Write the structure tokens for this entry.
Amino acid sequence: MSPLLLGMRLLWGSGRRGQARFLLMAFGSALGVACLAAVLTIPSVLTAHDDRTAARTPDSGTSNVVYQEFHDPYGSQPLHRVFVARTSPGPTPVPPGVDRLPDAGEAIVSPKLAEVLAANPRAAGLVPGRVSGIIAPEGLGDAEDLYAYIGTTPAELTEAEELGSFGTSRSRREIVEPSTLTILRFTLGCIVLLPLVIFLSVCARLSGESRARRLAALRLVGLSEKDTLRVNAGESAAAATVGAVLGVAGYLATNEVMARVGLPGLHWYPADGRPTGLTLTACLLGCPALAWFVGQSSARRAAQSPISVRRTGEGQRPKKLGMLLLVPGVGVISGYCVLSMMGRDPSGGSANSVLVPGAVLLTGAGLVFGLAPITAWLARRLAGTAKSLPMALAMRRTEVDPGSSLRVVTGLVLLVFGASLTQGVLVELDQVSRSTSPVQEYAISFGHLDARQQLEATKVAGVRVHAMSASSWSESPDDDNPLASAVVATCQQLAAFVEKATGCIEHKVLRIQDADFSIDADAVPGKSFPFLLSNGRKLDVTVPEASVAVRSYQPSQFSGPSLLIPPSMIPSGTVMADGNLVLLSDADPATVRSVLDGVGAIAPTSSVDPVGIVIDALAQLTVIRSLLFVGMVLGLVIGVAAFVVSVADRAMERRGQVAALVLLGARAGTLRVVQVVQVLLPLVVGLGAAIVTGWLAESSYLITGGGAVHWDWDGLPLLLVSALGVLFAAGVASVPMVRRHVDPEHIRRD
């Protein structure tokens, strides 16, 4: 009989306990494989999106069509319009997703944009003409894409280019930039793939002690060492194979649902999220291969020394070599932190792109392999000084078998370590995607707003204050007459828009002096500048001697104007005809998106300039946040699953020891305290190390990123609270795992 067949017959012949273990291994592997498929498919989803947007991109060339592109925000979403016009009869290039280009007065729009136009008639100004068709999925990035091809005449296009074809080798507007995508992949690998490997290893080693005793018995009755290893490895691989198939099937079903629901900022078609051949290979072959390797490794001692296994001789102490991985890892990230504290800037070097990720990986691996020896050493020290029986029992048990503690807590430790990295990535991207100003401005031309829209825009949720900005009037743009720029605001409004304002006087025109800007040579005291009002009249403003000193944020509509005009000088019901309505809100991304969406609902055809922000960058930040959130959820699922499976498995394995303690008179409270302490000790050690090393790793990433923020003090309390929550949940979950019922078969007879 082959060893593989023998292993399966022994498994199913061992009763409900063996069958339950096999099913637990299979379902654990299924969960792990589903998470693995989700992580490996994320780049495919992004690539599919970018490939479709690249295929529809107009490219200059020679044809009978001219075009002009417009990229505008519609609320917090990018709106992309391509105006096309025929210059002569004949065939024209056709983009993917449509049968023909629209004629003048027609428009072909995406399904989402068609919904917007139907729900909000005021948005019709964005897409002039009659909607004559809908863009098919192959011509869209995703189902939420706001895109339109609009037919017009050549005379209507001010900056027309001749259209050669549609399609480029690379999208000009990737959903995630390549450099950011590399960072995203690395972060997802740390917060998902590392805990996933640990979890799959845990699933492959369930009931390790009882399986080792069974394998030792096979070895003693004559089975060869090689066949003994194959029996165990075959059982693990069989469970992993069943789990891999279930995991892939579960992921496929989940993808069909999530593709229709989507994530904030990220939507995809079901076909985009289906696994590629390489992903299926990694899931269906990689997981069983890992289980085979772990099965071979875990059974080696039982095959080589079966008598010591059957007699439960003293286990081997954990090797300390794994702790050495912490030395270079922590050394590198600590070195960057020290350089920053010394005032030196280590950012910008090409070596940073290798040293920091390498140090993070070494630190994560050191946490995994160094936890067992550190926990064993600490347990030995505490056991020698323990005054209570529960503490002494817990510490001696942990000292003898720290490996089981490692399997229980490693997933949660890596989750906290990965959470630190995730915070660092979000802080860095937040700095890159927007200005460092604590406030955010939005400029909207008065030419795009009627009186009602102006009033409603100032009352949008999140808007703190509003003002006006304008330039002086000139008869012709070609005139050489000097111009002056001004802001219309009260002293209170000015104080909200700038960092500092000194010497402001209400109801009086003032010169603005900003130390960061040179003095306007044209705005000399005594000179007058006309400003055109919306009622057709002109307001003459004379430059005064008096001034207000300000320190403005960068960038800002209040950076550079020469004059401060009080609103009391503007006639009631009028505004600056050539000016902008300037709104102010807090600068956090959620508020920015809320204000943009609110203004978009009020004035859908108005062009909103979120000062200092690129809408595509804001959309990209939303996508990255969603993906990192998914990664954290997957990491949490894996970590919790590894903890639950390991604690339940260890409780099952130690029923014989519990039975012996009960026969010796141990109370139920004593046993529960022992169980909780055995779980919490390695968890406290691991979480403490994860918080310290994770925060150092996050800081080194921020330091080498070159941003203004090097130390994420705001994120540290969140990590501490999360760690305390994990400790509390782990302690509570460990209590029900102890049973005082004495089953005669659990009493050791050897």
Notes: The chain is about 55% helix and 15% strand. The mean pLDDT is 76. The first strand starts at residue 58 and ends at 60. Residues 16-56 form the longest helix (41 residues).
